[in-house]
Structures are given as C-alpha cells and as structure tokens.
Design brief:
Elements (H helix, E strand, L loop, with lengths): L6 H6 L2 H19 L4 E2 H8 L3 H10 L3 E3 L4 E4 L5 H6 L3 H11 L6 H11 L4 H6 L10 H7 L22 H17 L3 H17 L10 H11 L3 H11 L9 H17 L3 H17 L3 H17 L3 H14 L4 H17 L3 H11 L6 H17 L3 H14 L4 H17 L3 H9 L11 H17 L3 H17 L6 H14 L3 H11 L11 H16 L2 H20 L6 H6 L3 H7 L19 H14 L5 E4 L6 H10 L8 E5 L5 H9 L16 H4 L4 E5 L6 H13 L1 E3 L6 E3 L3 E6 L3 H6 L5 H7 L2 E4 L9 H17 L5 E2 L1 H9 L5 H15 L4 E2 L1 H14 L12 H8 L3 H19 L4 H8 L3 H9 L2 H6 L21
Helix pairs in contact: 2-4, 2-6, 6-7, 7-10, 9-11, 10-11, 11-12, 12-13, 12-14, 13-14, 14-15, 14-16, 15-16, 16-17, 16-18, 17-18, 18-19, 18-20, 19-20, 20-21, 20-22, 21-22, 21-39, 22-23, 22-24, 23-24, 24-25, 25-26, 26-27, 26-28, 27-28, 28-29, 32-33, 36-38, 39-41, 40-42, 41-42, 44-45
Keywords: ATP-binding, DNA-binding, Nucleotide-binding, Transcription, Transcription regulation
Protein name: Two component, sigma54 specific, transcriptional regulator, Fis family protein
Pfam family, one: Sigma54_activat
Amino acid sequence: MPVSPDDTIASLLHPARREPARLRRLSVLAACAVPRPLPVNTLAEALGAPLQEGARLACEAGLCTLLPDHRLAPTRAATLDMAVNLLEVPEVRETCARLAPLLEAPDEALLLMLAADPLGQGRARFQRATGRAAAMVDGIAWALEPGPSRSAMPPPWDFTSWGEQARWASALLATAAHVLVRGGHVASGHALVAWALGAEGLAGRGSAAHGFLAPTQLQFLLDAGQREAGIAFAREAHQGLAGPENTFSRLMMTVLEGRVAMDAGDDSLARRLFTTVEGQARAAGLDDLVGLAKVAFATLARRAEQNTAAIQLGLAALSLLCGEVPFEAVALLGLGLAYSREGRHLEAQSALTRALPGLDIPFQQLSAYPQAIAADCFLGDTAEAERKLAALVARAPDSPQARLAVGLSRAHLHCARGEWEAALTTLDGLSGGEETAQPHLYAIPTGWLRVEALLALGRASEASSVLDALAQRLYLRNSATQPARLHLLDARVAFANGDVARARRALRRASARPELLSAQDFALRARVLTLQLAEAGGTEAQRLGARQAALAEWRRLVDALPPEAQPRFRRAYDRPRLLTLLGESPMDEGLAPPYLRGSSAPFRAAVAQLRKVASSDASVLLFGETGVGKELAARAIHDMSRRASGPFVAVNCAAINDELLLSDLFGHERGAFTGALARQRGRFEQAHGGTLFLDEVADISPRGQAALLRALQERAFQRVGGTETVQVDVRVVAASNRNLAKAVRAGDFRQDLFFRLNGIQVELPPLRERDEDVLLLATHFLEQAAQERGGAPKSFTPEATRLMRAHPWPGNVRELHNLARAADVLSDAPAIGAAVLAPLLHRAMECAEPRAAPAAMTDIPMLFRQHGGSLRDFLAEVQRQCIAQSLVENGGNVVATASALRISRSRLTQVVLGNAELRRMSGRELEAPPARSTRAPRARRA
C-alpha cells in the first residue's frame, strides 16, 4: 500500500487515536443492541476485557450511563441505528452474535442472530421461532428467498406486538438488511425492509417505531437510482421521525436529501440541508454527524473548485470521525479527490487507497475503486492499480454498474501503459446501453478516456465527435468544475484536426483561470499545446519562452515525486511523446520500456542495442525466431526515439494477400476496384511522422517488393487508382524469422530492397538463451491471468520451475505466455506443480518442428556441371523440382505446399502459374500464366 507523505492524515489515523474511539463505539453498540441493560462485567465476558475501558469512555462522552448495579445503559443520544452506522459490518455482526446468548427471551435472541447472520444461523433458527418472533417467520422467509423465485409478499410486520421494544426490533431488522446488501445480497436486503415497512411505510407514512428503517429505505432508493421516489418518500417519512429518540435517523435522512440535491446540481439547497444537520447534531451532542456534515461541505467546496477549503474541511471531518470506519472512509474519499484537484498526487493516492477498505456499501465501492485506480495510473503505479482492480473484480456483483466500474478501471490501466487500441476496445465494450443507477459517474470519464486514446492514435476526427457528446453531457449536468479542462481538451482536439484558430481560442478560455488546471497534468498539457502553437506560427522568442515554461511545469511535476516513482511517471500514458516534443529523452538511461521484461544478460544487451538504434533515424531489420517479441522490440525503438510523439503502425505482411497488400500499404482512391466506396488512407500515410513496422517482410510478393522499394527510396507513393503523389515522413522497421540474405541469393527477395531495409540489423535472443527471464516472465503472465479472473495470482512449485528451466522453448515467449495461461486455468492449487506443467510442455514439444541434424553433404557443384546450363536455370530447376515433390506430397494443395516450403502463398502461386507442369499438378491448368513484363531494356553504361 502506498505510504502517505502527509503527516496530517497519518496522525489522524494513528491507532493511538482510533482504538479508544472504536472501544467507545463498541460499548455504545453493546448497550443499544440488547433490549434491557446488562452488567458491564457480563458484557466484557462476552466481548472482551477492553469493553470495560470502552464503557468508561462512552459514559464520559455522555452516550452511556452506569446504573447503580453496574449495568450499562444507553442515554437518549445513543441509539442502535447510530451505533450500527459508526462501525464496520463485520464488527457489528460479531457483536450481535456474541450478545445473543445473553438474552433470556428466545425471540429477542433470534432477532440478534438474524442481524448477525441473516442467511446462516439467523434464518435457520427463525424457522423454529416462538413467541412474538413466530409471526415474523413467513415475512423473513419470503425476504430471504432468491429474487427470481420470490412469491407475493406476505402481510407486513406487525410491530405493535413488540410494544416498547418495537423500535429496537425495527433497528435490528434494518441492521440485517444492511448486512445483506453489503454482503452482495441486494434484493434480499431491499425485500426485508419492504416487508418490515409494509405498504404504508413504503409510502413514507411509517410509525415512529420504524426508526432506522426509514433512512435505510431512502438510501436503498437512492442507490438504485430512484431519485424521484426517494424525494417523495423522504417528504412523508420526516413526519414519523419527529421524536427525540429518532434524532439520528432524522438527521441521516436529511444528509441523504442533501445528497439528492447535490446530484441534481442544487448546491444552494444542499448547503441549507447540511447546515441544518450540523446545527442539530451539535445541539444533540452527535459529533459523528457533525463530522459527516463537514464531509458534505467539503464536497460542495470541491465542486466549486475551492480545493484548499475542501482539504481543510476533510481533515476537520477526519478529526471528528476518528475510528468511525464507514464515515471515515467517505471523508478520505473526498479528501483524496480534493488532493488530486490541488495537484498533490501522492497525498491523493494515499487517501484514496486508505478509503477503500472502509467502504462497505456496493454503490460506494463501485464508484470509488475506478477513482482510486485512476490516481494510481496517473502516477504510473500500475502494479498498485492492478492490485486494486483484482480486489474490485473479486467483490463486484453481476450488475451493469459493476461491469462499467471494472471496464472503466481496465481502460485506465490500458491508457497508463500506452495500450490505446486495447483501451478503445474495452471502452467500446461498455457502450452496450445498459441502464445504471448513476450513469453520469461513468459516461464522463469513459468519454474523456476515449478522446485521449483517439488523440494518441492520431484519429483526430473521431476524437472531435466524441468530444462533442462529452461536452453536451457536462454542460447539461451543469458541471461547474469541468469547463476549463473541457476547453483544454477542445483546444488539443482542434489542433490535432489542423484548426489552429479554434485551438488558440479554446486554449485562451482554458487558461483564463489557471488554478482550474492544477489537477493531474492539465497545466503541463496546456504548456505543451502553447509550444505547439508557437512552433506553428510564432516568433523565435515565443517558441523559446513556451518551451521553457513547459519544461518548468514538467520538472515541477516530477520533482514532487520521490526518485523511485519518477521513472514510472515518465513512462505512463503518452508522456514519452510529450517529452520528445520538449526535446527531452523519453526514457532514462538503462531503463527498458515497461512492456519489455527481463534481467538476463542477453536481454539487457538487446535493450541496449535497441536504445542505440532508436537514437538514429536509419531503417532497422529485426531478426529472431518466431515468438521472441519482434513487434515489441519495434515498438520500443519507436517509443525511445524522437518519433515517439508520432504514430506506431504495424503491418503483418504474411496475413495480407498480394491483391490487397498495395491497397493496405499505400491506400486507394474511390472506385479503384470493386468495393472501394471511399478514399482509404494506407499504412504509410497513417504512420506519417512516426514508425511503420513491417512484420514478416520476406513474405511480400515480387510486385509488392518493387512498390515498397520505390516508396522507401523516394518517401513518396501514389494510392491505388490515383495519380496524386503523396509525400510521407516515415521510419521503417522490418522483421523476419527467415534469413533474408539467403532469400536474396535464392532470388526470392530483391537485393536492392534488402540493402534499403538493412540499415541496422538487430538479432533478438531466443528464450532458451534467457534462462534467468523464464520464471520472471511466467510469473508476470500468471499475474495477468489473475487480474482477468479476479483472484490471487498463482505461483510455480520448485519442481515446475525446474521443468521450465530445462525446456528449450521452441515457441519462445509466445509459447511461455500460452503455457502459463493454460496452467493457471488447469491448476486447482494456488501453486502450479509439475503434474500440471509436464503434459503441457510435452504437447508443446510434439507440436514443435524438430531441429534437423545436418544432412549428408551433397556435391552441389557436380550437379551444376551435370546440368550444363546457367546458374539461374539450375536454381530454377531445383526450385521447380522441390515444388513439384511438395505438391505431390500435399495432394496438389497450394496452401499446404506453401506452408511446407515456408514461402508465401502468393509467391508460390506465381511460380506455379508460370509453369505448365506445376499448373497441372495443382489443378490449375485452365488458368492463364501471368503476363510477362514488357519493360524496355536498360541502356548500358558507357
């Protein structure tokens, strides 16, 4: 867990302050949870000796009184609903379970057990209820049935039979409902309250005896998004809570009404309601509710961008709410958000992380976890964000709101890692139209992340459309805290679309109140955009001043972090691109990008070579076996280069047939071929200003090789079906798992294209040469699997580790990734053993192609002399015989033959169609051979 550098929070949450407060509240709960006062010694025997000290503190605070016979009794200010609200649910449940055996009346003990364990012993014991509890059996059984099978509601609870204990009994029913809801059984909790209130109570016309049931019902309505029903219920319910014994419940109702007013944007009404709560709570000696009112005032201050005041109010609330974990967690949550807007990011992360364990209401958890994960991601602390995401997945119910919360959190993580396409895919999965209780909590951050991802990918026009919808949502909700940041985002989108005039206007509006840009890195982005606008049309002095201002803001952000946190902060989101724009190195020396993992000497040497290559703009040719991570190496070259601010575009040449390759690389004009309904930008255009990665470049056909060579030589091309010459600035990184030099000698790859691509060669080591990295990578893959399934990461036993170290890994890192994921699924134990791993490794070796032993030497020169023709004709004959033999072995199937010969299907098809015998063997004798080139002969050099 992150450690807060803020001594104030640490001191307020110190155990020396919190433990006495907890004991005091535990004593209040013990006094209120029993219908008649019990001796302090009896309570201490059940709950532990420290209760004696808690009872003394409760008496000093005026919440309890010690009767002459040493029995502990609550005062009028102390009520069961207050005690339940101020302690964590597990502690409330344990206390009720320990107190139940102390009660002489069986029906009273049954109610305490129902509050302690409503779905376990409480329900089982209620089936044998006697006395007053017997009339409650049908209603409680109905409420605790699974939702879909629930029948018609039986007659409501008749509280009159409980006499003076009716309010005590209703508070225990409300406690049981809270236990159910916070345990994930929302429908049962709501049903229990509905049955206890009855039709009249659900309409708000309840009795004073209903007590705690009224604010419980209002909270359930609001959490379900039924705002209008909640307002109508509260209006009626207040009349039944007029007595002094219901002061706490009445003020809790008012707090919830203030929440409704804030959600509706009526801050003035909310302020009046919270002022009422603070005044009446202070008069009644309820310091806990005074603290809760201060939390509400802090929220109002944060909404008005009065962040300093919000922090002061939040700290004051913490001092009053000492040890009241549920309310304390709400205060910490608001304090963390205020710290974030004030630009105090470490304090924000610490406060939000501390808040999460105390939030036991599902609605609060689902809104707080994405905010805490966003704070981690902003700092680049993806390990902490992954831990929180795993906790969220483990406790999230199966509901639309839970799916949105988990998806939004995953999108934050993808963005922090620079995985923009994955972020968009995740966000697209959240737009299924499911109804949620509070849609604005997710619509705004998902829209914001979508714009950021589209900008990072260079899809500016799409970003503009998403921004329009986002701005409409913000203004319709009267979100006073958003306009400055919204104007800044508008300016960035306008600049990306080439609308410099609009970008300048929006940036001026965003900068009108600089204090509103202190959150996250908005001020830095405003400075960077100012620099970009100056470079687009400013004087040299303006450019120099803008650069200095942006660098100063960057250093202010980084210097506020401890040294160990700075590298991950530099790597997060698109900050490498921002640093490149500022003329700074996007990576620290010796630091690998986060997606390259390893510590072995071959890995470190390869990373060092990639870093050297990145410093130039020369073409790069990556070699290595399949699965070693050539695309990740190409991305690392891009991210560590001066082109990091531009796009990275990857093309798998083996996956595109010859007919579509030219269109994919260079684009096409409308009508260029059947189905070309609009102009399409090719990969070269998409990579303008960045890096183009050509994977499996050896599989490009001769026609494609010629077109690629021209584009590389001239840095220009024409779209398919077009006449306009398109100029591009692109760095090309190519890769192949075949030896291109041998392909050149065999005539399968153009020599001039090879020399054009082969600016710098980088050989990536296979995994069998990186023995130290095997366990490190496997553990990382298990952590990824655990995050996806929402559980704790598994590990490997020593025997399994030895098996992995002995394995040759013919499929390299890709094979290891697949094996770790499969082992995670197949292993029932937390430690994956050799029994699970051995069959997987054995199957992998069966599928791997054996490394052939050296064949007997053949006298190739003798065969050439016997042939009698030219070397070119000899090689063509060898090629024809190899293809013919393979066609026979594969039944004339061209696809299988190409796979066996390890050449592309398009290349094999060209050879087959050029030879009558091969056409017959492949069943293509009716197809015409390819037309020969009519290119004029070159003039000989004098």
